[in-house]
Amino acid sequence: MNILHVNTRYIGGGGAASIGNLLHNETNKQEGMTSRFMYGRGESDDPNAIKISLEFESYISAGITRLFGESLNRRLSNEAKTEIDNSDIIHIHNLHGYYVNYESLINYIVDKDKKVIWTLHDTWAFTGRCAFTFGCEKWKVGCGNCKNLSIYPTTKRDLSDKLWLKKKKLFTRLNKEKTVLVTPSKWLKDLVKESFFKEYRVEVINNGVEKSNFLDSDKSILRKEFNLPLDKKIVLFVAADPNDKRKGVRYILDILDKVDDNIIFVSMGKTMDILSDRLIQLGYISNRKDIYKVYRCSDIFVIPSLDDNFPTTVLEAFANGIPVIGFDSGGIKEQIVDSKNGYIIKKCSVNDLGNEIIDRLLRSEEFNNKEEIILSIFNEKYGIEEFKNNYYKLLNTIQ
């Protein structure tokens, strides 16, 4: 069986790349199965990965989208068509990202009568333009008068009504008997079932991440490696793009100086122009081992996203035995189970966020046996073996 993964990037740029990359590499370890990875941005040294666009083309397409509301990517290349021709199943991940003419791609897949798995990592596929809707429900019947033009994918011209109709007509060309939509969360599946995809088969397969190799490591030694204080409680968060309102980083910044002195905040991701002795910014960390070491250094992980699907950062925290505090949004509330592996608080509540961090960190009894429980839940639900086996079972149902 030959599988072709299609995504914006081969690696980096969000959870879709890491999930697609994981499945791609694990598939190539299976007897009788091969995987190719077709992407549009960034780089890869994988001989089984093929880049289908030039970087400057993606930037031009992004610029056109911002000005005129719709991407004008080049037509589907012969190279991409050959990859599709040689594949038994096309596994689509993210099509947004300005790197491919998705209309040409879908039409070619339909014309070749290919089997399709489409893993939806957000809502873009069934909205006029938004990757996340912030509670807007216009997409159920048709978009227009979009209030989120400044949210990715940013634009100054509102074509959401036109693009919603275009997507509906285009994407519903996919053969219902040969297409399976996959969502990482039940939250997203429920939205899909209210969209123009409602007649398609939709399966929930939770994301998975690799286990940690640092569970037995001395936290003091790990902290010294990153110059982190040994005598503080560490609250970790990810600031991939602090200016992205959806990620809610500002809610953490609002409580930096409102928690106990024995608490320090540590961020991974984009460095912010903020001076505070309560915040240590580690910047971008690309090495997976180092990322896991930072998780293991920490006492708690906070994800203040206002709208999210099934973020792998939460799973990475669980893989390292770290409890998570998150807002009651999207699929996050499915990941955090009855205070066993973390705590759900009211969305946008700065006071609750601060109080939860203070209370949970200072009450030592809250952490008794917490790590063991978290690791047990992770091993049962979110490890790589469970994740990939669920996909392999799905593959066998659409052969």
Query: What is the CATH first-level class name of the largest domain?
Result: Alpha Beta
- The total number of structural domains is 2
Name the shape in a single word: globular
User: Biggest sheet: strands side by side, in what order?
Assistant: 3-2-1-4-5-6-7
What's the order of the H and E elements? EHEEHHEHEHEHEHEHEEHEHEHEHHH
Provide the CATH architecture of the largest domain. 3-Layer(aba) Sandwich
| Overall mean confidence score, pLDDT | 90
Main sheet summary: 7 strands, parallel
Distance between the termini: 9 Å
Structure description:
The protein has 399 residues and is of the alpha/beta class. It folds into two domains: 2-208 and 384-397, Rossmann fold; 219-381, 3-Layer(aba) Sandwich (Rossmann fold). Helix content is 34%, strand content 17%. It contains 14 helices and 13 strands. The chain has helices at residues 15-27, 55-68, 78-85, 102-111, 160-171, 186-192, 219-225, 249-253, 288-297, 312-319, 332-335, 350-362, 370-381, 384-397; strands spanning 2-9, 34-41, 49-51, 89-92, 115-119, 179-183, 201-204, 233-239, 263-269, 279-281, 300-303, 324-327, 342-345. The strands form two sheets. A seven-stranded parallel sheet has the order 3-2-1-4-5-6-7, sandwiched between helices. The protein is globular, with a radius of gyration of 21 Å. It starts with a strand and ends with a helix. The model has no long low-confidence stretch (mean pLDDT 90).
